[in-house]
Write a structure and sequence with these properties.
Layout: H1 2-5, H2 7-33, H3 40-61, H4 70-74, H5 77-107, H6 120-150
């Protein structure tokens, strides 16, 4: 249960740890021994991309992205909860659309990286994963918004 609840944070931590480790090892090898690991740059960039997109999903889950509350602040108290629900429904549609588009993009990935020979399918797969996770989080937000609507003000 802990793993599933914190999947983005765990995978992003692993990805950024690999990035840092590979870069440090490559710097030590380059300046200490004059040797470079040819695949280190590709691996560190790929892991960094995964860490960034998983971090985006994690921030979304915890509602840490910046928001503009000026419209909500101008609404009457009775309209704020329905407006937040409408925004959540809109975001669900947007996340589903982005998941579908990123899936299509991922399925078109037929190239491989020059050094490691890794398929871009694997690299682009984080887009699909990120938007699916964000859609799942949005469903939870909608459930919370509906529950809030049922509670008395």
């Amino acid at each position: 249960m802990f793993f599933l609840k914190n999947i983005e944070e765990i995978l992003a931590s692993i990805a950024i740890s690999i990035t840092v480790l590979v870069v440090i090892v490559n710097v030590v090898l380059r300046y200490g021994f004059g040797f470079v690991v040819p695949w280190s740059e590709e691996l560190s960039v790929i892991c960094f991309i995964w860490a960034v997109y998983l971090g985006i999903s994690s921030c979304y889950k915890h509602k840490l992205h910046m928001g503009v509350d000026v419209v909500v602040a101008m609404l009457p108290k009775k309209a704020k909860r329905p407006f937040k629900l409408a925004v959540s429904v809109f975001l669900l549609g947007l996340n589903i659309l982005m998941a579908v588009l990123s899936y299509q993009y991922m399925m078109l990935s037929n190239k491989v990286t020059p050094v490691m020979g890794m398929s871009y399918f694997t690299i682009n797969g984080v887009l699909f994963l990120c938007f699916v996770l964000m859609a799942i989080h949005t469903v939870k937000f909608i459930a919370d918004d509906v529950a809030a609507l049922k509670r008395p003000h």
